[in-house]
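Aim 2 progress update. The chain analyzed this quarter is reproduced below.
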Amino acid sequence: IGRQIPLRMIDLDHERPQGSLRGPIIYTPTFVLVENAREVGRIEGYPGDTFFWGLLDRLVRQLNSQS
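Predicted structure tokens:
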């Protein structure tokens, strides 16, 4: 998954995310999937390994269905 959607960490105190987000980032961690400067989806917080990887897989499938 890391090859398909590389991770980029942003320090919100010193940097603004590039592109169009659906709303502000409130919770940490927040994983935002962005393509062509538009938010495709996000995972707010860390719900544990099982849920996180399932949610991430769903986001990747959503991204692939838009291509």
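The chain has a mean pLDDT of 86. The chain has one helix and two strands. These observations will guide the mutagenesis experiments scheduled for the next reporting period.
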